[in-house]
Automatic annotation (TrEMBL):
It comes from the Bacteria. Residues 120-147 form a coiled coil. Keywords: Coiled coil. Transmembrane segments: none annotated. This is Phage repressor protein/antirepressor Ant. The keyword Metal-binding does not apply. Residues 2-102 form the Bro-N domain.
Amino acid sequence: MTTEIMPFDFNGNQVRTVTKDNETWFVAIDLTKTLDIKNTSDALKRLDDDERSRFNLGRQGEANIVSEAGLYSFIGASRKAEARKFMRWVNHEVLPSIRKHGAYMTDAKIEQVLTDPDTIIRLATELKTERQAKAELQQNNLVLNQQVNELKPKADYADVILNNKALVTITFIAKDYGMSGVKMNELLHELGVQYKQGTTWLLYAKHQRKGWTQSETHEVVKKDGTTKLVPNTKWTQKGRLGLYELLKENSYLPLIEKEEIA
């Protein structure tokens, strides 16, 4: 919330305005003195709740303030001959206009306001309606902004996978889920993805043609100096994505998506 106090002078009388959330308010005691209204409290009681408020003026403490709509009621209650001049002064020096709904004060309009109470009520109602519409528009803009943000592509786990073309080990994938490679292998066995043959994990037949893995064979030198061939299975990014979808179906999420939910 932003506020700004601006003092004006009308025939030797100080009239302070307060800009509060882009709306102009008037210090009530200044209006009653200028318009020769005897009882400020009674004048405030005649206003609706949204036409009056309180504001801290600093060293002078809290003061009652009235909105532009409340200003009309104060002017209408004034018996001072200078009320007409005050209205013109507010219009031409304090406020460049009173919103967009045609309430700019020509001399004829000022005369109508000062002589016809219904005009005051109508202008106040129009001002309230416009403020309500402005508030609704601001709310709608906030909602639209949120929807735009929600539609922006997120850097989720699937994005990470699609941006990586390299082969990866099961241990590498397991770290994304906060697991060890051993635990991930056991979990994939429980989910019917693979089985263990000796020391090697192999895919069940239904997954073997999906392009999930790529096997490599390495020559290893044994202690006695002889060599043996050891198979080494790595996962493709397609396989990594397939595991992601399978694990997600079974309520296992990668850490990056758990953080988004949290």
